[in-house]
Design goal:
With 217 residues, the protein is mainly α. The chain has one domain: Up-down Bundle (Four Helix Bundle (Hemerythrin (Met), subunit A)), CATH 1.20.120. The chain is built from 6 helices and no strands. The longest helix is centred in the middle third of the chain and has 37 residues. The termini are far apart.
Length: 217
């Protein structure tokens, strides 16, 4: 199988990417999967808006829906880019772990490089959390303003974005565990936990609203 260092995953067909994710290759891994799930959530949000645009019944909501699509296009691209960035960051950590440590100088250099790469690796999933929360805030605007035939897709979008946030948090956390700079650790943990709490609450609120609309008689 081709090395994960020399490929662009966003050029893969779905099956190719999933097969690689399932392989013994350590990257792409959970961080890349989180970004992918987030991008799927954004795509569903755009689909809901696009299914509303052009409908005479929702003409008064068309500008809002077009704004949602425009914002989502940017977010979707950013989340797809984070699939690549997460794998690149992981590979840098893996390379740092392979550095020689035969004497005190080499050990110190290795520690410094590893510390820096771990910091970088923690910031990528943090960005996935930020983008996914931003997407949830955009998604919330579709509630009550979009084609009701696509309401279930709003719920699926919320679930995907919630999963992206929680999954990315785990990838932030696993890197923070090995970082020695406690000020950095405390600050990134503070940011991530805030994003996690807000994201879960908002996603659950959107999902519950969708559930309440989909009443089975």
């Amino acid at each position: 199988m081709e090395s994960s260092k020399n490929i662009k995953f966003t050029n893969y067909a779905i099956k190719e990417f999933i097969d690689l994710l399932a392989s013994k290759e350590p990257a792409p891994g959970g961080g890349a999967a989180a970004a992918l799930v987030g991008s799927i959530g954004v795509a569903l949000s755009s689909m809901v808006a696009n299914l509303t645009i052009g409908k005479e019944k929702f003409k008064y909501k068309e500008e809002l829906m077009k704004e949602i699509v425009e914002k989502n296009e940017k977010l979707q691209k950013e989340l797809l880019d984070l699939i690549e960035k997460d794998t690149e960051a992981f590979n840098k950590v893996a390379d740092a772990l392979k550095l020689p440590k035969n004497n005190p100088e080499e050990k110190e250099k290795r520690k410094e490089i590893l510390e820096n790469t771990l910091k970088e690796a923690s910031l990528v999933p943090l960005e996935v959390m930020k983008k996914s929360l931003e997407a949830l805030k955009i998604l919330e605007n579709t509630l009550g303003n979009s084609n009701p035939n696509a309401v279930s897709d709003i719920g699926v979008s919320a679930l995907c974005l919630k999963s992206a946030i929680q999954s990315a948090w785990l990838n932030v956390k696993i890197n923070l565990v090995s970082i020695r700079d406690k000020n950095f650790v405390n600050e990134i943990q503070r940011q991530a936990e805030s994003l996690l709490e807000e994201g879960i609450q908002l996603a659950d609120r959107i999902y519950e609203e969708v559930e309440s609309v989909l009443q089975i008689s």
